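Format notes (please read before filing issues)

Several people have asked whether sequences and structure tokens are stored in separate files. They are not. Every record keeps both together, in the order shown below: the sequence lines, then the token lines. Line labels are part of the format and must not be stripped during preprocessing.
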Amino acid sequence: MIEINKNIYLVPGANHSLFPYCACLYLKGKDLRLLIDAGMGPANMTPYLKEGFDLVILSHCHLDHRLTLSQFPPIPVWCHEMETVFLENRERFLTSVGLLRGGIDMEKLYPGITIQEFSIQRKLNDGDSFNLGGLSLEVFHTPGHTPGHLSFFIPEAKLVFSADITLTAFGPFYGHDFSSINDTIYSIRKLKALPAQTVITSHSGPYQENLTERYTAYEKVIYQRDRGLLRHLHQPRAFPDLLGKNLIYSKYREPKPLAQWFEQVHLEKHLNRLLELGLVKEKDGLYRT
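Then the structure lines:
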């Protein structure tokens, strides 16, 4: 564990906290010890298991944020109320993220990983707050990545844990069927307005400099993707003609079928967005500016 501030620890994930793992946050209050997310991987469990913890809060339902949860001793699990169904119902999860539609079998792509169901003991909402004893935790609903994605603010440390609002150069990820570009924009701006001095994410950071500029640049990637798609639609194109062109990913990392599926979903959402804005028209299955 890496101490970020007094009684606030970053728990790095395996594989440099990249999928199918994530970094987690451990808060050691005098009255309550909690872990935010549980995707660090078995090899990184030992330090906080020795410290002990009273509950786990999942920022959202994605596999890399709950991967290690099945190896914990029995412990209460909390999440946003909108994420509950995806954690308690495997088929609903697979359908809602679009893996069934895409013919993607995550358990075959990542041998040894099982998509399990977990019972949720408490459903959180925007504005909930908790006194842990010397530390307080404020809950922010930041949808877009998933419908019930949560971020967290610790006012004593002026620290934000933004989960999968990662502030990386790649930009926001909304490559699942239940993701939303408009909600993502809303959530970026919501976090940008917080009086934070440190931002930790599930896959990058900590960030402590130029935070306003980082949020702005992160949001701008969305509009860069819009413009990239528009450039390809100066002449009529069918949607399949846009696939496999690295319009979202500069390089398809392995497993390639998964990356290409995520790119397809991103493009679907951008195309629908541009249609709604009146910047693209469709006729007989062809799209053009």
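For reference, the curators noted about this record: The chain has a mean pLDDT of 95. The longest helix spans residues 211-232.
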